[in-house]
Design a protein that fits this description.
The chain has 18 helices and 12 strands. It is of the alpha/beta class and 412 residues long. The structure holds flavin mononucleotide. Flavin mononucleotide (FMN) binds next to loops.
Length: 412
């Protein structure tokens, strides 16, 4: 597999694509995608978590053919990573959800559409074909969530993802600093920067400002103007949601349900008890509770306590093929990614998304070859060792403060 195609010669990895997106998008839009909550500790740790685990390769195993495929919820996928739900992806590129769906189908990987998509869920279902996943919030107005669930079912989504780590919005400080608001508004602080990105601006002018299209009718029915859609959406986040609601929505779906945003073993066991088919261990990419641990910290314990009762997915910080292998070795079935394909979309639309997926597949295949694993089932806990203590000793020595500094910068 060759990741270095023509126009992307200089984009060798996801971090390169992130920098390209940073160049191509107005600061406020890039920061909305890239940023996280408060001091962004979880976001930085999401990258550092992978350095705490090292590989123990096995050699002289025939790896002339590497099989990265796996089955999830009754469907076969080409690789153990998928595109996670990201709201208003249309900010990166007009109708990005359609592009994400098509590229996911083309690459044979899972796609999960956000409730807050900038394209109506029915249209995305058509683009994605059978097998797509739909992410739902249990809103203050339960009937609105029930109707979204029914629409997703009718449209042909097969897997429901219930996100439960949004009892309220995360405190993302880059947004007010950039005067980022929805609907988008030009202010003194962001006007110059926006004008410096004419490509993005022209696309926006042509396609109109993205808005949460699935909610338009509900919001207008509730008296919100089209302008007030996002405020309406935020007002719908409900801190009173409990396991009783999650159990109700799980039963309503009549198909595989994944609970997204868990980190505690108790919650994962509860998810199994109420009939979920899977969980996503996630700190929401560091966008919700700053300081929340990264998934690898809890993954081995959770897999051990859970056995094979549920499919375990992880997200938050996965940027390299080797990251995916570490999660597999520690008990995850597969991983999802939020920002990676948005960086691709922001940098170059569909071609950028396709390139990100290509990079990750190429990295994964090479890393499995070098690790000595010809298939995903051959990756075991024996392939990794925890280096946490050594890593801490290394960076806490004053002489090595520079090491920590470099890692922090690399993670930014
Ligand atoms: C711009 C953006 C929007 C997001 N919107 C949603 C959403 O609507 N629903 C949801 O469950 N998660 C949402 N997430 C969280 C992602 O699904 C995922 O948990 C997170 O991005 C994983 O971290 P990563 O970006 O480091 O891969 C969003 C993330 C980003 C970056």
């Amino acid at each position: 597999m060759e990741a270095r195609a023509g126009r992307f010669k200089h984009i060798l990895n996801v971090e390169d694509m992130r920098r390209e997106a940073c160049r191509r998008l107005p600061r406020a839009i890039f920061d909305f995608i890239d940023g996280a909550a408060e001091d962004e500790v979880s976001r930085r740790r999401n990258r550092m978590q992978f350095e705490d685990w090292g590989f123990v390769q096995r050699v002289l195993n025939d790896v002339s053919r590497v099989d990265m495929s796996l089955e999830l919820f009754g469907r076969r996928y080409a690789a153990p990573f998928g595109i996670g739900p990201t709201g208003l992806a249309g900010l990166a590129w007009p109708r990005a959800e359609i592009l994400l769906a098509k590229e996911a189908v083309g690459a044979g990987i899972p796609l999960c559409l956000s409730t807050v998509s900038s394209v109506r869920l029915e249209e995305v279902a058509d683009a994605a074909g059978p097998g797509a996943w739909f992410q739902l919030y249990i809103f203050r107005n339960r009937d609105l969530s029930r109707s979204l669930l029914a629409r997703a079912k009718t449209a042909g989504f097969e897997v429901l993802v219930l996100t439960v780590d949004c009892a309220t919005g995360g405190n993302r400080e880059r947004d007010p600093r950039n005067d980022f608001m929805l609907p988008l508004k030009l202010t003194r602080r962001n006007v110059l920067d926006t004008l410096r990105h004419p490509g993005w601006l022209m696309r926006l002018a042509k396609s109109g400002a993205p808005r949460p299209e699935n909610m338009v009718e509900a919001a207008t029915g509730a008296g919100a103007s089209a302008q007030g859609l996002v405020a309406f959406m935020n007002s719908q986040l409900d801190p009173s949601v409990t396991w009783t609601d999650v159990a109700e929505f799980t039963a309503l779906w009549k198909g595989p349900v994944i609970i997204k945003g868990l980190l505690s073993v108790h919650d994962v066991l509860r998810a199994a008890d109420i009939g979920a088919s899977g969980v996503i261990l996630s700190n929401h990419g560091g966008r919700q509770l700053d300081g929340a641990v990264s998934p690898l910290t809890v993954l081995p314990e959770i897999r051990q306590q859970l056995g094979n009762r549920l499919t375990i997915l992880c997200d938050s910080g996965f940027r390299r093929g080797t990251d995916i292998i570490k999660a597999r070795a520690l008990g995850a079935d597969a991983v999802l990614m939020g920002r990676n394909t948005l960086y691709g979309a922001g940098a170059a639309g569909a071609a950028g998304i396709a390139h990100v997926i290509r990079i990750l597949k190429t990295e994964l295949e090479r890393a499995m070859t070098l690790l000595g694993a010809a298939s995903l089932s051959e990756i075991t806990p024996e392939h990794v060792r925890y280096l946490g203590a050594a890593h801490l000793a290394e960076v806490s020595a004053p002489a090595n403060y520079a090491v920590l500094q470099r890692r922090m910068e690399a993670a930014m």
